[in-house]
């Protein structure tokens, strides 16, 4: 798996040399905790999601990524925000540098019994809001984390 360097609001971020990368992540809650994955490509924590395929909508993207990365089936979802700041950059070892735009959804799943790690994740874990604040999170998810903390988005039972 390719390792990448992500930048967030950094003056040292390189200029993109590829088309914009669009993706979606899901905020999945259970018992006042939020589900995150510890990624194999960076050892950092991230919300569940990934890149948009040409033939799918953002909603289909987040549903697919959640199913692939956790085994969970999305029952319903709600768009929370779109993070499109120009300083959300990822640089890959092959020289590709992309700007990342991410749609963030609140996601409701049918059943948590099928929770399982994919090859992209070392670990899946539900974390409380207090645990989220000290987390080593992927740079391009830091603004999403701040948004969640500031909005005090309530967990579902």
Radius of gyration: 15 Å
Q: State the total count of DSSP E strands.
A: 9
Mean pLDDT: 88
Derived from helix and strand composition plus strand pairing, the structural class reads alpha+beta
Characterize the overall form: globular
Q: Which stretches are poorly predicted, pLDDT < 50 over at least 5 residues?
A: none
What portion of the residues fall into strands of 2 or more residues? 35-45%
**C-alpha termini separation:** 36 Å
Counting DSSP H or I runs of 4 or more residues, the number of helices is: 3
Q: Helical content, roughly?
A: 10-25%
Could you state the order of secondary-structure elements as H and E?
Answer: EEEEEHEEEEHH
The main β sheet shows up as: 9 strands, mixed
Question: What are the defining features of this structure?
Answer:
9-stranded mixed sheet; 39% strand; 157 residues; 3 helices; alpha+beta; single chain; 9 strands; globular
What does this structure look like?
The protein has 157 residues and is an alpha+beta fold. 17% of the residues lie in helices and 39% in strands. Strands 1, 2, 3, 4, 5, 6, 7, 8 and 9 form a nine-stranded mixed beta sheet that branches. It starts with a strand and ends in a 6-residue tail after the last helix.
Write the layout of secondary structure elements.
Blueprint: E1 5-8, E2 21-30, E3 33-39, E4 45-46, E5 48-51, H1 58-70, E6 74-83, E7 88-91, E8 97-109, E9 121-128, H2 129-132, H3 142-151
Parallel strand pairs: 2-8
Antiparallel strand pairs: 1-7, 2-3, 2-5, 3-4, 3-9, 6-8, 7-8
Structure, briefly:
With 157 residues, the chain is of the alpha+beta class.
